[in-house]
Design a protein that fits this description.
The chain is an all-alpha fold and 76 residues long. Helices cover 96% and strands 0% of the residues.
Length: 76
């Protein structure tokens, strides 16, 4: 192999190494964003459970009100 060929290969390997480092950096950023999104989705899920619990409570209250109104209507 000539000196020029060796330099060419060395330059190519340096370029590949830099590209790999860039990909790793981008992957780290992507992983951080994905983790943040997962945390946000968990928060939304927790919130939805609380909202559903509130809706269930309101539904039970509405059933009691309807039952009372029917009792009042039946006596009048």
């Amino acid at each position: 192999m000539t000196v020029e060929q060796t330099h060419f290969i060395t330059d190519m390997l340096r370029g590949i190494r830099q590209d790999v480092a860039d990909v790793r950096t981008r992957m780290t950023g992507i992983e951080l964003r994905q983790s943040a999104m997962e945390q946000r989705l968990l928060g939304i899920d927790t919130h939805l459970v609380a909202v559903q619990h509130g809706v269930d409570g309101m539904s039970a209250d509405m059933r009691r009100v309807q039952q009372r109104l029917e009792l009042v209507d039946g006596e009048g």
